[in-house]
Design brief:
Blueprint lengths: L3 H17 L6 H4 L5 H17 L4 E7 L3 H7 L5 E6 L3 E3 L2 E3 L8 E10 L10 H7 E11 L10 H6 L4 E6 L15 E6 L2 E7 L9 H10 L11 E3 L7 E2 L5 E5 L5 E6 L1
Parallel strand pairs: 1-10, 3-7, 4-13
Antiparallel strand pairs: 1-2, 5-6, 5-10, 5-11, 6-7, 8-9, 8-12, 12-13
Helix pairs in contact: 1-3
Length: 261
């Protein structure tokens, strides 16, 4: 485990990296013995630094839940990060491209919780009972740590590469459709780039949500009523560039769009 002073140094570096939009050198290159628990300690301290600045927790993101994403990153286990209220946009938003470090886009479903989910022992049924709405979403990935050669240790410390999310389409109740068969086509500048089916996320998009509730339970944390949980991508990440338009077509569940200016 890293010393507390080192964890504090890393957290402060990441706060500054977001402000300057200049990624810091890869953590695992500088701290080769850094472990996953060290990374979550950095993330928790990073979160507290930003909450002290007035930012408000609004939800969580789960990453690396699908085979497509694990293959794309070379990382074989899920991770998670947190979502502040200023990271949530509505469909049609104009996004400042330079606000992020070369952003990428993922296609996901977001679960809006109507009651708490607490682990250990949380199940898929607990998630479906707790969620009031499931909403089509896009995730905008950001990176405060250089990407080349990064491992899950780097990614977790970097708040699981969370930049922002865009909500849209037609919200549905969890039992209104078979969530495993929700599918989407992802377009960049009217050209189809990626397609996917939500069952690619751990066989059910709600599966990552109960995984997360159980994962954070040992730290005395839980998923609270009102939180929005971004459940994991069922496509590979798509690079976006300044001037690009993005559209995800979820068929019966509508579309989500954004524009990078």
């Amino acid at each position: 485990m890293l010393e507390e002073a080192v964890i504090e140094t890393i957290a402060d570096e990441l706060v500054e990296a977001k402000q300057t939009r200049t990624p810091v050198p890869r953590l695992t290159a500088r701290y080769p013995h850094m472990q996953v628990e060290d990374s979550y300690a950095v993330q928790r301290l990073w979160r507290s630094r930003l909450e002290a600045q007035g930012r408000v927790l609004r939800g969580r993101k789960i990453g690396l839940t699908s085979k497509a994403m694990q293959d794309a990153t070379g990382i074989s286990e899920p991770d998670y990060g947190i979502i502040f209220d200023d990271m949530i946009f509505e469909s049609g938003v104009n996004v400042e491209w330079k606000q992020y470090t070369h952003p990428r886009i993922e296609v996901e479903l977001a679960f809006v919780l109507g009651k708490d989910i607490k682990g250990p022992g949380a199940t898929l049924i607990d998630v479906l009972e707790a969620a009031t709405w499931v909403i089509p979403a896009l995730e905008i990935l950001d990176s405060r740590i250089e990407m080349e050669g990064r491992t899950i240790v780097d990614t977790i410390a970097d708040n699981a590469a969370m930049g922002a999310m865009v909500l849209g389409g037609r919200p549905v109740r969890p039992d209104a459709v078979d969530l495993r068969w929700v599918s989407a086509m992802l377009y960049r500048n009217e050209e189809i780039i990626e397609t996917g089916v939500a069952a690619g996320v751990l066989n059910h998009p709600a599966a990552g949500v109960h995984w997360l509730a159980n994962k954070i339970a040992p730290h005395g944390d839980y998923l609270a009523k009102g939180e929005i949980i971004l459940a994991g991508s069922f496509t590979r990440p798509m690079w976006v560039y300044q001037g690009d338009s993005v559209l995800a077509d979820y068929g019966p569940l509508g579309t989500v769009t954004c524009q990078f200016n």
